[in-house]
Every structure is written in C-alpha cells, then in structure tokens.
Amino acid sequence: MDSDYQDELEEAAPKIRFNLNFDKEVRCLEENKEDRDSKRFDIKRLFEAVSTGDVMKLEGLHQYLHQSMKKLSNTEYQSYGKNVLLKALLNLRNGRNNTIEYLLDISEKMGDINELVNAAYTDSYYKGQTALHIAIERRSTYFVELLIKKGANVHAKACGKFFQLNDGPSFYFGELPLSLAACTNQPEVVDFLLENDYHRVDVRESDSLGNMVLHALVVLADNTPENTDFITSMYDHILTTAARLHPKWRLEDIENNQGLTTIKLAAKTGKIGLFKHMMHREFQERETRNLSRKFTEWVYGPVHSSLYDLDSLDSYEKNSVLEIIVYSSDIPNRHEMLQIEPLNRLLEEKWDKFAARMFFLNFLVYLVYLSVFTAVAYYRKKGTPPFTLEHTRQEYLRLAGQLFITVGACYFFIRGVCRKRPSLDTLLIDGYSEILFFLQAIFFLASSVLYCCGREEYLGFFVLCLALSWVNLLYFSRGYRHMGIYSVMIQKVHRIPGILCPFTAVVTLLMEPELPDNNTAQPINSTDGRGRTFFLPTEDSCIKPTFRNISHTIMELFKFTIGMGDLEFTEGYQYKEVFYMLLISYIVLTYILLLNMLIALMSRTVEKMSLESTSIWKLQRAITILDLERSLPRCLRRRLRSGVDKDLGTRAGEKDRRWCFRVEEVNWNKWNTNLGIINEDPGSGDTARLSPTHSSRTLGRGIGLVCVSVRVLMGCHDARLPALYSEPRPLFS
C-alpha cells in the first residue's frame, strides 16, 4: 500500500497553467535555477518529507502554496488519488507523524481542509480509501479523533478490489470506517465513532453488498477460538451500545442485499461459533435484556428451563434459519449446527408432533404402490403391445393397477422437476433418494411411451423401474435410527470408487501382456480339458486359446489377480522357469500386496463413514421433516407450530411478546446465581398449579429431570428427557 520508492507515482498528464512570474524574465528579475528549485515543492519532495516525519523539510511550504496559488488538495499533489496526507498517515512512527498536524494547519489556512481529509484513492485496487480508513487501520486513535474534528466523512466507503471478497490478496471489512474499527478489534475507536460530538456514524449504514457492521463481523468470523472470542465480544458491544443510544433500532432485523439478517448470514456461511453465541445470548442487565435470544425461565440446582426466541429460526417463517441450514448443501458444518439448541429439540418436537405420523402414512401408501406395481408386473400379458382390453374382472383389475402406478410415476416426475436442481455436492452429502425417485419416474414414462408405440423394448424399462422402486424403499429407513444410519452408509459408497480407481489402474498396468516370441514359446496342442476357462469351445475343440491372444491373456491374468488362476497352462511352453518367475511376481504384487492394501483402505473408509453416518442421518431426517411441513396447508401449520407465545416484558415496562421454545437443560457449571429468572418457582412455566390428584404426573416429571442429570453425569451426549417427562402445558396457545 505504501513504498519508499517513488516509481509508484502516477505519470502526470500534461496540463496548461499560467506562469505568474513571466514578467520577471523580461525585467531581468528572474531568480537563478538553484534558488528557484529550493523553494519549489512538487509531489516527490512532499512525499519524501512526510515519509521521514521531519517538519523542517516542509519549511516554506505555506509561502510557496500562497505565492503559486496552489493547494495541497490539487491533483498535481496526488498519485492515483493518494495525497500527501494519506502518505503521511501511512508512515507513522510509534503512532505519530508531526507533519500531519502541520499539513492540516496549512490546509485550513488555504481553505481546502475538507477536500484534503476526504481525498480517496482512485485506482481500482484501493478505490475509496480515505485518511480516516488509514488512521483506523494504523490503530491511531489520536489521528482518528483529529480527522473527525477536521470534518472527515465517517461514511466513506473503501470499495476497491482489495477490500472485496475475492480469491486473491484481500481484506473484507465492510468498506465503512466503523466496520473497519470493529473488524480490527478497536472498541475505543468504535465508541468514539458512535458517540463523538462532531460527526456520529449511523450504525445502520451498509456497504455495496448491503452489509452493515454486524454483517461484516459475521463475514470475518472463521470459527477459530481466538477469532470467535473477539468477534462475539465486539458484536455484543456494538449491539448494546447502539441499543443504549437508539432504543428503537432493531439492528438484527436489517437484511443485506441477499435478504439475510446477521443470524441468517451466520447460518448460511457456517460460522458455528458466532451462530451458537447468537442463539444462546442472554443479558442479565435490565436495560439490555430485550437484546437476549435466550431467557432463563426457572432454575433448580443444575437444571435450567430456558426460553429461546424463535424469531427467524423456526421453519414456520419463510427463509428461516432452519431452512437455510437444512437445504443449503454448501454449508461445511451444517450437521453440527443442527445439534445446537434449540434447533435440535425443535426438530425432535416437530417429528414427534406430526412428522412421524405423516412419514409412516407415506410409507404405507408407497408400500401399497409397490404391491400393486409388483402384481401388475407379475400378471402382465406376453406378446407385442399394445394389448386389447378384455371384459373380465382380471383385466379391469390390471387396468386399474396400471392407472394407479401411472399416477404415482407422474407424481414422482412432477415432484422431481419442481424441486431445486440437485448439485453434485447435494448428491454426495444428502444422498441419492430424490434423484432415484426421479429416475424411477423416467423409466416408467419411457416404458409407457414404448408400450403405446408397440415396441417390445418397453419391458426392459419396466423391469428397471420395478427394481428401482424396491431399492427406493430404503428412503423410508430414515424414519428409524439404526436402519437410517445403515442406509446412509449404503448411500456413501460413492467414496469406494475413489479407492478402486488407483487400484484398478495399477492392476491394469501389471496386466499389460507381453506377447511371447515365436521361437521362445510355442504352445503344444492338447485335448486335455483340465483347467477352468471362461471361453466357449470353438468348432475345433482340440485348439486351446494361447497367450498370443490378448483377450485370453488379460482374462487369465485377471483370474490370477482374484486367486482363480491355473498354472497348468505352462506345460505347453518352453522356458517354464521364466513363466513361473513372472507369474509369481505378478501374483505377489496384485493378489497379495495390492488386494490386501485395497481391503485395508476400504475398511478405513467404512470406519470413517460410520462416524459420519449418524449426523448425516439426522440431517436427512430434518430434510424429511421440513418437506412434510411444507406439504401442510397454512392453517394446519399454524396449529402444529412449536413453541409458546410469551410476554417477556423486557422493554422498559412495555410488552414484549415473542414466540419462544422451551428447552430444559442440565448445566453443572452454571448454578442459580445472578440469573435473570422469570419464574421463581421451578417447573411452573405456563402451567397451572397441580392438585394432589396430579401427583403422579409431577413425580414422573421429577423422575425425568433426575434421569437427565444422571445421563449427563455419565457423559451421554443425547441427554433427552424420558417418556415419563411431560412438558409444562402453556397457557398461551
């Protein structure tokens, strides 16, 4: 961005200027060249002076500018928009450069202070960068305050290529000075920009991508512990400061050009550390509690009942966080993101409330479809289609079955066309169910077209469709945990070819046959029928295929590779010792070494797939849940909506109604101290007082909490409440 070499300067374009001292030469009053050059200040001399920070080198600058009627903001003192002030700020020593105050003082006297402090780069790489950006990047709070006092634009946008998201060298911070201060972890500068008495920034201001400062922090996050700590701290600091200065502003509801709020952007980009912090954010101070997304309802010992704000999270809303995570195949860690509360419990409740029953009903319907399909295939007519309809009960039943499976195939085809086009990543991560159902429909429709055209080839597509229909029955295994995990492992076998390809290539190289010379190896005709072969007998059964035949040679070597070779073929050749030496070397390399290496690699791959299968199965079930929810009418979705409407009363006595989801957790590191508890009585929630007749239910609930505590103590990650537990019944529905 800056250099001690001056060859970076922009070549000055020729300009026409007036020589105000033209009469001195006529009157013989012109100064000599050395005196004139010592008083002249060009861009090179100015840049060299401010780079050293020596004010003495700028002595006489004001007088020269006044006499020559020039200003520091003139284009002749700029190189690609970089003026002397920008050059001075790029050459700070211990945070100071004494020439800066001197330049600002001269500029104020010349009347171009505003143009000087707001000058920006014009080249495409650093376009838009001003002195305020450089002062913030150099972490000089003193010069930041000085520039703002002098009228620096606090909303200037550095939109050059270096400040955009690209694959080359770059640093994206959101273009604005406030975003730069936040992304470089300078809370003092952020506070000054927000609360100074000269020119305050508007925290809602956005860059060319529509990202405000909070969006920029989300983009900058990289999931490392150090980065996550500073990003979350700065995020909360800006959020609370803006809420104190502007209580009615809702920064987290602002969308960028992609229609994403900050929490949606964190979900879309897989910033799991910041995303988890956003959902679990809980402020204890009364002034900032309205910024919380998590509220502690009641606490008893290590057991916490928390209310999570479902705004933007639940799939009941359009473009929700849950839909973004589930349907975006480019999120690298979306499996882990679905395990974060409350998303994990929210999906479990949706499954238990309606998705499980709908999924089982779909399974029964598909089973009926398969049965009818199989019966139609079994009782099909033989001959050349199309067949005439006979007025018998069996014919009418067969026709009804054909119409039924045709309607089913059309449904699968239309659903496959209407769905989002599956990418390669989607197939490799989410499985092959959607594309297989679509292929099933394609095969049936192709079979129907050939049937109507009177082609007997319809039967081939018909058989393929039937076989694929039974294979697609594996789709419904995702409703059961163990079968679903096994199904995922079957779908993930696409990794096996990655191992088989190198193995096959090596074996192919070893199988390159060397044709024996006519004088060295001459077969002897033999009618001995011993030895296994895949070749059909020829007309002359006395002639056996020889190793002069390439196809026969490759086949025999392949049989040696899989341990099925026969060494008796060497009896008819000369130099059998050479043959045995070559064959034994080949068998050692292929059958013993390479084949065992292949088995070891495949075992390692299967072990790795088994570790990933559980999380992938949960993701596939989440996709199924949301697909089933989308198929429901709006009125049913409203009735089946998860959560409860709560008045949290956190806005300075005003009503603050939110749709929340209750999750009961066990935390042995967080006890009932200094918590913003809504209800003093544990377990009350929105439930009415229980009478003595409900003691059994209360006992069951208590047992459930104890079971959760025991499971957490034993290190079980899936600390779900047992069936005896009954969630507190909400008063608001």
UniProtKB/TrEMBL annotation:
GO terms for biological process: calcium ion import across plasma membrane. It comes from Oncorhynchus mykiss. It is a multi-pass membrane protein. One of its GO terms (molecular function) is calcium channel activity. It holds the Pfam family Ank_2. The chain crosses the membrane at residues 354-376, 396-414, 435-452, 458-476, 578-601. It is found in: Cell membrane. It comes from the Eukaryota. The lineage of its organism: Eukaryota, Metazoa, Chordata, Craniata, Vertebrata. It catalyses: Ca(2+)(in) = Ca(2+)(out). GO terms for cellular component: plasma membrane. Its main location: membrane. Gene3D superfamilies: Ankyrin repeat-containing domain. This is Transient receptor potential cation channel, subfamily V, member 1. ANK repeats lie at residues 127-159. The keyword Repeat applies. Keywords: ANK repeat, Calcium, Calcium channel, Calcium transport, Cell membrane, Ion channel, Ion transport, Membrane, Repeat, Transmembrane, Transmembrane helix, Transport.
